[in-house]
Specification:
Radius of gyration: 21 Å
Family: Belongs to the class-III pyridoxal-phosphate-dependent aminotransferase family. BioA subfamily.
Subunit structure: Homodimer.
Distance between the termini: 34 Å
Oligomer: single chain
Number of strands: 16
EC number: 2.6.1.62
GO molecular function: adenosylmethionine-8-amino-7-oxononanoate transaminase activity; pyridoxal phosphate binding
Bound molecules: pyridoxal-5'-phosphate
Structural class: alpha/beta
Main location: cytoplasm
Order of helices and strands: HEEEHHHEHEHEHEEEHEEEHHHEEHEEH
Number of helices: 13
Amino acid sequence: MLAYDKEHILHPYAPSIPSMDMQFVKSASGVYLELEDGRKIIDGMSSWWSVIHGYNVPELNAAASEQLSKMSHVMFGGLTHEPAIKLAKTLLEITDESLEHIFFSDSGSVSVEVALKMAYQYWNSQGNKQKNKILAFSKGYHGDTFGAMSVCDPVTGMHSAFEGILHKNIFADAPSPAFNDEWDEKHIEDFKSKLEHYHTEIAAVILEPIVQGAGGMRIYSPSLLTSVRTLCDKYDILLILDEVATGFGRTGKLFAYEHAEVTPDILCVGKALTGGYLSMAATLTSKKVMQGVEANGNVLMHGPTFMANPLACAIANASLELLLKSPWQERVEGIESQLKNELQKCEELDIVKEIRVLGAIGVIELNADVDLAWMTEKFIAHGIWVRPFLNLVYIMPPYIISKEELSTLTGALYEVVKEFGAI
Ligand SMILES: *Cc1c(COP(=O)(O)O)cnc(C)c1O
């Protein structure tokens, strides 16, 4: 099977004939992935932010089987169903009260495409055809589809591979200062001047609140977010917050924008929405935005085949119920303080540039890019699954990870990073 995989199956951002061997996962339970040879390794990645309750969760399995026996899928054009209505209600309840409409889609990237369409159509439908650009931030990541790529970091965000094809947007300096650093107006200057200069062309601002994920694992001050909101209001520009990675408790708040007490005009959620069981995302917005979109008889032009898939909605409902009745905040705070304690000693290593921790996210920034194949092998030998990129070794474990398991994870990180620094 591995030979077949190697010959035919493409993996994320990887050559068709991969330079490194894939790990074969037989099953997964709790925080553990079971490999082909029976070894069990701790998943430090929550399968890219999504598996917040761990794997093979009885409550989610039950919700899936129950929904399967009713209907796995039904089209959403002209039809509706309880799982979607229930999920809409919950999501609109737990997010800002100004958000009153929700659009379900199949992935985070598509939720961003929908957000961008909402922003463009908001102005277009009202007769303003000039506003066809988005102001985004350097080091941002918003997904892999064309609209989403056009607002990803212009240097590391795949723009060079699609030169001349991507829509040209405007970029402000990466958000700063760091989470706990003192605020100074100089941190908003570049953003402010871009807004002043281009506001007649800008439909919306997009950013990942507080934590920039795949564009650099950067954690920034809530004051920046507050200032961005204030300036968007001043220039009457929509604010899209992309919480696809940060949503559902990961940063210590249910949604990261709560660190700054700001209100988005459009909000994207995904990744952890179904607890990592199925691909699903949503774009939430206000009455004001929908009224703008629908001015002069227009409607939002999007409608995926698997929109509001009942199976995914039912699992999302069970996942949110499980999350909201769990002591998730305590758990995430516990992970945060343990990460702070246990990753701190990495700072003594010369290879380490900086340690960053917020909520259940721990980042070790190195002074050099990692050798992915070498490091992956070492991590597995230490019993953990961690997938670094460039010079970033980072973890965001399932919230249910035990103290001992987390110590195994951080201990192994230290040992492997230390060994990497020595070669
Ligand atoms: C992962 C991610 C996306 C894209 O989600 P997919 O489900 O991979 O399409 C968009 N925005 C952010 C912030 C993400 O982390």
